[in-house]
Amino acid sequence: MFNLNKGPRRGRGAAALAVAGLAAMSLVACSTGPGAGAGAGSASDLDAALEKGGELTYWTWTPSGEAQAEAFMKEYPNVEVTVVNAGTATDQYTKLQNAITAGSGAPDVAQIEYYAIQQFALSEGLLDLSSYDFGELEDKYTPSTWSAVNLNGGIYGLPQDSGPMVMFYNTTVFDQFGLSVPTTWDEYIATAAKLHEADPSKYITNDAGDPGFAQPLIWQAGGHPYQADGTDVTINLQDEGTKRWADTWNQLLEPGLLSDIPTWSDDWYKALGDGSLATIVTGAWMPGVLESSLPEGAGHWRVAPLPSYDGSAATAENGGSAQSVIKQSKNPALAAAFLRWLNSSDESVDVFLENGGFPSTTAQLNADEFLNATPEYFGGQEINKVLVDASANVVDGWEYLPFQVYANSVFADTVGQAYANRSDLNTGLLAWQDNLITYGNSQGFTASE
Amino acid sequence: MRATSPETSQALGQRVRKPRREWQGWQFVGPFALVFVFVFIAPLAFALYLSLFQNRMVGGNSFVGFENYVAALSDPQFWNGFIRVVLFLLVQVPIMLALALVAALAIDSARLYASGVFRMVIFLPYAVPAVVAVLIWGFMYGNNFGLTANINDLLGTDVLRPFSGQWILASIGNIVTWEYIGYNMLIFYSALKTIPAELYEAAEIDGARGFQVIKAIKIPAARGAIVIATIFSIIGSFQLFNEPNVLKPLAENVISSYFTPNMYAYNLSFAGQQFNYAATVAIIMGVITAVIAYVVQLRGTRKEDR
């Protein structure tokens, strides 16, 4: 009991935790095993693994996660799936990255947003699923979501949902001030000015500076600020498309036509509820959020395509996640089999749909029942037709950085300063670019402008 | 028992010197030593070890000696955060400790009606978990719908902007003061309670009045407690983390990722995967904090001895 010799060795995990700092997290120490997942396997292994059974851990924050796992276990009683909510988005990535670095404690399957997949794939955290013939599943998904998991010739997950950007607008406010629904960004700016002039307490929308919002808009504007070829990374936040977005957004930011309420804050929901914000530019997963978090908005909101630069339909993906098999998994074949069922079987995707999700599978997106739905919240509008249209109009060729999680974390330090001072966004973008190039080089990439 | 004669202790010493080692001592110290090594020595040693390496996303882990220290000491972001907490320390700590001392003296004065209630109410904020407290204040600080927005509406001004660049440090200082006033008050109050009643009697006979008693008896008697509270507050200021970190989502552009040294270390390791550099920042801050706390203690106790 008092054997002190054991101390230092067993204390390692705890030590790493304490150093890294401050937050409490579950990091299981003691093991240094590299995990069994070497990635060798074939499609026939999957069915065998399902038959044989075993235990899996699945990290997700999707509301339907638990229900999907239960439906799976009903179908495959030999498999036991433990669903863990290890936090939302970056909170979970922190834990996941720690577990991957520590060599143990990671789940078998985890939810990862599209923007972060490349980072985890690059740090050798995720299993390449192409050896299980996952390439054959391509036709099931919308092109933009499939390309988000298909990186450097590998398949690092299966798409769960997607968030093609659309514009939600408060029709009551629009009617009150005699506004028409903008179809281009120029019209959007004019509408913003008209509304704010008529009632200074009202704004076209809010934007306090959010990388998860700015980047999809850069994407829509045709920007390709990030190009990665292996470890050579080019970062140009002044390319034509990026500048187009910044110059357009400056016209909203500098005259004070944007509310500075942070998205998702308590104030934000209040402002949406009382009509202070006339539009929400966001992903197609928003209807479920509105219905559950903003009951007082019922009947007021409608959906329109995202305004574009030249009037032709173009949009981008805002958010959305895939599920990936973590390389550390002791049972990669079973994990892959679960993943295949989770994100491609009708049973599973239907459960996801019932919970208000916006799927990435074309079969569900194009089902008549889905397209013809007329939710009362949106005044009986056939909103899914607008949303599904958007999912087909995503501009292709967008790439995130292999260190996007870090990049987003310093957005406020750089571009955010332009937001705070209501000054030229291009200056902020350049500061961000400098920061990212420095970071990239310090992490061993060859990063340049 | 200091009465043991030299002879007996020598005899005992000889009897103890047997070939078998005695383990009783270890068994008493063991539980403490075990925990101490796990939660104190090991993390420190590991942090030191980490700070000498650099782990890159591409290229893996390599020994870099003191390179991280050189980088940190010339890192403007680190010093930016450092200067901010020093400023915070110089303004917030004196205000908080003065208020806490006044509260303790008021409760101790025996002139306060229902002093027990006051003591409880002032102490209560300390019982609220820091994160919850900051969330509550975050609601109240809301620029658009919070309490400050209501006050602004009432006064017809736009002066109160708790989340603006000029106000944010004061807003955080206000929260920290609210949280820790009661805690410091209790430290002071318990020091005041230990003053023997005879001293007051003697002072009264000498004709000392209210403020003279405070100046000549109470404050000198509480000096030790004041030094301790000051050291705690210095450490707390240098470790400022919870309050700005919880408020960050509400004031993203004002509270940078390197707002305080602790936030910097946290974001370096968890957003940037720079564990080694984060360990370096943590160690430098630890050393600075220890030195300053030690100086304060030396000065405080020297005055006490005088």
TrEMBL record, chain A:
Signal peptide from the UniProt entry: 1-31
Keyword terms: Signal
Family matches, as InterPro entries: Bact_solute-bd_prot1, SBP
Residue spans crossing the bilayer: none
Keyword Signal: yes
Entry-linked Gene3D superfamilies: Periplasmic binding protein-like II (3.40.190.10)
CDD domains for this protein: PBP2_TMBP_like (cd13585)
Annotated Pfam families: SBP_bac_1 (PF01547)
Top-rank taxon, per record: Bacteria
Annotated protein name in UniProt: Sugar ABC transporter substrate-binding protein
UniProtKB/TrEMBL annotation, chain B:
Top-level taxon of origin: Bacteria
PROSITE patterns (alphabetical): ABC_TM1
GO cellular component term, pick one: plasma membrane
Segments passing through the bilayer: 28-52, 82-105, 117-140, 167-189, 221-241, 275-296
Record's subcellular location: Cell membrane
Pfam families according to UniProt: BPD_transp_1
Keywords: Cell membrane, Membrane, Transmembrane, Transmembrane helix, Transport
A GO biological process held by the record: transmembrane transport
Domain ABC transmembrane type-1: 82-296
Membrane topology: Multi-pass membrane protein
Family: Belongs to the binding-protein-dependent transport system permease family.
Matching PANTHER family: BLL4140 PROTEIN, DIACETYLCHITOBIOSE UPTAKE SYSTEM PERMEASE PROTEIN DASB
Protein name: Sugar ABC transporter permease
